[in-house]
Amino acid sequence: MLTPDQRILPFERIAILTDLGDDIEKTLEYTTALCRWYNSELLLFHATDGNSPDEPKQTLAALLENPAWCDLSSKIIVTKANMSDGLGQLDTYKPDILVLTTRAKHNLQKWVAGSITQEIFRRTHRPVLVLGPAITSRESVTPKPYSGILYATDMSAVSVMALHLAAGIAHDQEAQLTALYVESDSEKGFTADRVIAEQRLRDWMQDHIRGMAHAIEKARITVAFGEPAKHILDTARDQKVDLIVMGAHGMGEIAGLASRFLGGTAYEVCCKSRCPLLIVPEPH
Q1: Is 94 exposed, middle or buried, given 0-12, 13-18 or 19+ CB atoms closer than 10 A?
Q2: Which residues touch 119 (CB under 8 Å, ≥6 apart)?
Q3: Interatomic CA distance for residues 284 and 50, integer angstroms
Q4: Most exposed among 38, 177, 200, 202, judged by the fewest C-beta atoms under 10 Å?
């Protein structure tokens, strides 16, 4: 792995957003490994929504006494506020990545609307690393350094920041980057000639990578036609990737939460993927 001074992306702070559920220790196990890789400070954030902050602070302080991660630089942030106001407070610490766990739901609307996940996606402009149920259900979730990263894109403006993060992480981890475009709408006129389609995707990446062209030189380029979530999951499995990176549509817009991305595609990827999903919003 490259030394810190050879890396493109400095991740100085990584924040866990927790409701203190049963998966908090698994989330800590995964996130503290990331903090070690990047020499990052760990932030533990919990919003009490009006309840006393004392008990959550004690719970989080006890968790940090675990010998597996007690040596890490860390802060506990418990706010007596709703999620919206609390995220504003967390933002003063300038976390580079937010980490949260999404539990499986039978009803898609429960994931899209009326949840903490929804509020986070509406309010934050930080990348959000989502650990789905297929990850936290494992006996151990300590990640190894990434060897493969899948960047799924629709070549829209909101995918550009995700491209930079995916390419930067792949460079810093010396991982194989795979770029995937899935066309689900035959009326959009995206050519069905695979060679031409793949060259179009490579050209788009080169046009938008801005000073990081070396990070995508060896990227695998692939184009698929059909259901986006299925092709993302299939490609992630076939390429044995450790991380999926996607840009997010409609951040800050309630209507956007019903979009193709934050609706069925992201939900299905989160619930079925064997690796984490990094959701990258549009910069505010």
Answers
A1: exposed
A2: 83, 84, 87
A3: 28
A4: 202
- As a whole number of angstroms, the distance between CA 32 and CA 43 comes to 10
* Strand partners for 195: none
The two three-digit tokens of residue 29, written as one number: 């196990």
Higher local confidence (pLDDT), 175 or 110: 175
The residues, any chain, with a CB within 8 Å of residue 65's CB and separated by 6 or more, are none
Give the model confidence (pLDDT) of 256-265 as tens digits.
333 444 456 7
Closest CA to 18 of 139, 142, 131: 131
In the chain the domains, ranked by start, together with CATH numbers, are: 4-101 (3.40.50.620), 148-280 (3.40.50.620)
**Contact by Cβ (8 Å): 280, 247:** yes
pLDDT tens string 183-203: 776 555 456 677 888 999 999
| Residue 81: C-alpha distances to residues 31, 71, 87, 149, 257 (Å) | 24, 29, 9, 36, 23
At 146, the amino acid letter reads: Y
**pLDDT tens figures, 146-162:** 999 999 998 888 889 99
Number of H helices, E strands in the chain: 10, 10
Report which of residues 282 and 206 the model is more confident about.
206
Indicate whether 251 pLDDT > 60: no
Bridge-partner residues for 41, per DSSP? 13
Taken as a whole, the chain contains a residue count of 284
